[in-house]
Structure formats: structure tokens, C-alpha cells
TrEMBL record:
Keyword annotations from UniProtKB, A to Z: Signal
Domain Bacterial alpha-L-rhamnosidase N-terminal: 51-190
Keyword set includes Signal: yes
Originating organism: Hoylesella timonensis CRIS 5C-B1
Taxonomic lineage: Bacteria, Pseudomonadati, Bacteroidota, Bacteroidia, Bacteroidales
Name the record gives this protein: Bacterial alpha-L-rhamnosidase N-terminal domain-containing protein
Stretches assigned to coiled coil: none
Residues spanning the signal sequence: 1-19
Pfam families cross-referenced by the UniProt entry: Bac_rhamnosid_N
Keyword Signal attributed: yes
Superkingdom to which the source organism belongs: Bacteria
Length: 306
């Protein structure tokens, strides 16, 4: 019994010491309002391929993280958390395979857990080690760039997505710096942190469902699934006009006018069963090419690597 307690105690000590070594600096977007999802980005120059590199992300909401336009996690987003939960959660991932010599673009898509202004949004630290035991790191600070994303939350738990204004290159080298501003450095949350080093709570798509049938009612369409589930609806459109709006299952989407485009929420989870798809005066039911139900479930991602 004493031996077991000693092991637990040592594990706690290691956890605390590692956490303290992160020296996390929290940042926020000064333009964010109570519904804003936010983009953060920074360039990181490396002199060689690292032999080992980690990225530690602390947040009070939900995030997707990218290096050189590649999502660093196989999860839909992380961490999994309930609505109205703003507790700081800190996750470390192995990102060695995403990095390259020269410039690397580090990018974060952040969403609050509910519609409110979160003073502390994210804190990021990257560490890289070279073959000669050289070492370099990057930390979030006022030198990071930020702006509100083109997707935002709604008061009923849904999202608005402006595909017309979407900055497709927001996480790449080729972006419009004039639309960005410096992040604001803020003090860390006073709440206790949760740390994850060998896995992390996340969400994933467990199943993709096809509607059983649909009914056209005037200028709208109802799609019926076999059973109710929690998740998202993804709609593929063809021939929609640029700036045209459609609504379904808590999402309001502004079309970008490409030949084919997909409309779906980024972070919002809703009940899905009988889905009404409607739109403005330019919407036509025949623009809908495919409707998919994405059953989204929380799980514990056990891979430290990604």
C-alpha cells in the first residue's frame, strides 16, 4: 500500500514539475466578442529537421491545431468538454513529423465553449530538439497574429459560417497580413488546470449516416434519418450563388459561389433527426447534391503522437 502511494505521489510531482516548465503565456484576440471563434498564427523558423518536437496547447474552449496547413490531430477537435465548461485544459502532442527546415506556420482555430467573452483563450509552447542536441522553442505572446474567424457561435448553440469571406489561406504562408492584428497577452486562469501528456479527451465522427428519405415542401426540404443522434449535418451544394444563404440544423451558411461547396458546422453539436434545409430567395432544392449525418462522440485519444 505504501509503495502504491509513493508511486502516485512521484507521478504527481513529475506532473507538476513538467507543467511548471511549460511557463505558459496566455493570449487572446482583442477583437473577439461573445460569439467569436478566433484564428491565431505564428511563423517558426527551424535550421534543420528536429529529432523530436512537442506542441503544448492550453485552452479554455475547443481547438483545431495546424502546422504547415496539416491538422496535427486525427480528432475532429479537442479537448472534449461540456457546454459552459471554461476550465483550462493543457494537452501535449508530438509534432515532429509536421515540421521542416526553414519556415513553419503554426496555426490555431479556437472556439469558446459557449457564447461569452473568454479573457484567456489559448497558450501555446513548442519545443524542438536537433540531432546535435541543439534546442529551440516558441511560445505564444504579443508577436502572434490573430483575427476573428469567419465562423462564429450563435445564441442557440449553433454556428454561422461565412463561406464567402472564408480565409482559405489563413493557416498558410500565403495570407493577407493586413486583416490580422497582434494578439493580447493576458494572465493565466486562476482555475486549476487539467494536464494530458499520453492522450487527451477529444471528439470524433463515429458514423456517417444517410437520410432515409426527403420531402420537398415549397422552397424547403426535409431530410429524415433512421434514428436520432447527436452530431452534425454536412450538405454538399452545387450551383449556389455567391453570397446566398442557407440554414439547416442550427447552421447559417453563406455560400462562396464555387461550383461545388460543402456547408457544415466546425464545432457545434446538435440533435439530428428530421432536418429542415431552407434558404433565401436564391435557394433552390435542386442545389442540394448530398446530405450526410455525422454522428459525433467524445473519446479518449490514446496516441501521444497525434
Amino acid at each position: 500500500m505504501q509503495k502504491s502511494l509513493l508511486i502516485v505521489f512521484l507521478g504527481m510531482c513529475i506532473k507538476v514539475s513538467i507543467a511548471q516548465s511549460f511557463n505558459l503565456q496566455w493570449i487572446a484576440c482583442p477583437q473577439a466578442d461573445s460569439t467569436s471563434e478566433v484564428w491565431f498564427r505564428q511563423d517558426w523558423k527551424l535550421k534543420d529537421y528536429p529529432t523530436h518536437a512537442t506542441m503544448t496547447i492550453a485552452c479554455t474552449g475547443k481547438v483545431s491545431a495546424y502546422i504547415n496547413e496539416r491538422n496535427i490531430s486525427t480528432a475532429l477537435w479537442f479537448p472534449a468538454r461540456s457546454n459552459n465548461d471554461g476550465k483550462p485544459i493543457c494537452i501535449t502532442l508530438d509534432v515532429t513529423r509536421f515540421l521542416q527546415p526553414g519556415n513553419n506556420v503554426i496555426a490555431i482555430w479556437y472556439a469558446p465553449s459557449w457564447t461569452h467573452i473568454e479573457r484567456q483563450q489559448v497558450a501555446i509552447t513548442l519545443h524542438a530538439r536537433y540531432a546535435n542536441n541543439g534546442y529551440t522553442c516558441l511560445q505564444s505572446d504579443e508577436n502572434w497574429l490573430t483575427r476573428p474567424a469567419t465562423t462564429s457561435l450563435t445564441l442557440d448553440g449553433g454556428e454561422k459560417d461565412d463561406g464567402y469571406a472564408y480565409g482559405a489561406k489563413w493557416n498558410s504562408d500565403d495570407f493577407d497580413v493586413a486583416t490580422w492584428q497582434s494578439a493580447t497577452a493576458v494572465e493565466g486562469p486562476s482555475l486549476p488546470y487539467s494536464y494530458y501528456f499520453a492522450g487527451y479527451p477529444a471528439v470524433k465522427v463515429s458514423k456517417i449516416q444517410t437520410p432515409r428519405y426527403f420531402d420537398v415542401v415549397g422552397d424547403s426540404v426535409y431530410y429524415q434519418f433512421d434514428k436520432a443522434f447527436k452530431g452534425q449535418v454536412r450538405v454538399t451544394l452545387r450551383g449556389a450563388k455567391r453570397g446566398q444563404k442557407i440554414q439547416f440544423n442550427g447552421l447559417t451558411y453563406t455560400c462562396n459561389g464555387e461550383l461545388d461547396e460543402q456547408a457544415y458546422p466546425r464545432f457545434a453539436i446538435k440533435d439530428v433527426y428530421r432536418v429542415l434545409i431552407s434558404g433565401d430567395k436564391d435557394f433552390k432544392p435542386e442545389q442540394i447534391q448530398q446530405v450526410e449525418g455525422l454522428e459525433v462522440v467524445p473519446y479518449f485519444h490514446q496516441s501521444y503522437q497525434y
